[in-house]
Amino acid sequence: MSDTTSPANERISQIVNKDDVVLFMKGTPLFPQCGFSSRAIAILDHCGVAYGSVDVLQDMEVRQGIKVFSDWPTIPQLYVKGEFVGGSDIMMEMFEAGELQQLLAEKQVAPAS
């Protein structure tokens, strides 16, 4: 059972709920530090939505904490309206099937400006 009251969990919860779409990734959207994060950014950019990102390489507490928070072992991790969607493989599958675009539309995610 995970500790949902840890400071890291509280911070992650605030981050996840701050923006409609949040990507926990290695690096930044301009300089992704792994292929999976780069693919996740490309998918989000192609969807044309506004999103926030968190560079887990800059914060070890978040890097470990997000894996517990989502019960998902890998990074990147995508959240839409506070809900965990998945990693880059799931994002790619959903995108190719049109499901990610549908989810973003249903959740009324704001377009990128």
List the helices and strands and how they pair.
Elements lengths: L6 H12 L2 E5 L9 H13 L4 E4 L4 H11 L6 E4 L2 E4 L1 H10 L1 H8 L7
Parallel strand pairs: 1-2
Antiparallel strand pairs: 1-3, 3-4
Helix pairs in contact: 1-3, 2-4
InterPro entries: Glutaredoxin, GRX_PICOT-like, Monothiol_GRX, Monothiol_GRX-rel, Thioredoxin-like_sf
GO molecular function: 2 iron, 2 sulfur cluster binding; disulfide oxidoreductase activity; metal ion binding
Protein name: Glutaredoxin
CATH architecture: 3-Layer(aba) Sandwich
Low-confidence runs of at least 5 consecutive residues: none
CATH homology superfamily name: Glutaredoxin
Number of domains: 1
**String of helices and strands:** HEHEHEEHH
| Strand order in space, largest sheet | 2-1-3-4
DSSP summary, beta strand count: 4
Helix-residue proportion: 40-55%
Amino-to-carboxy terminus distance: 40 Å
Number of helices: 5
> What about the largest sheet?
4 strands, mixed
CATH topology: Glutaredoxin
Overall mean pLDDT = 94
By CATH reckoning, the class would read Alpha Beta
Q: Strand content of the residues, in percent?
A: 15-25%
Rounded to an integer in angstroms, the radius of gyration calculated over CA atoms is 13 Å
Structural class: alpha+beta
C-alpha geometry:
globular
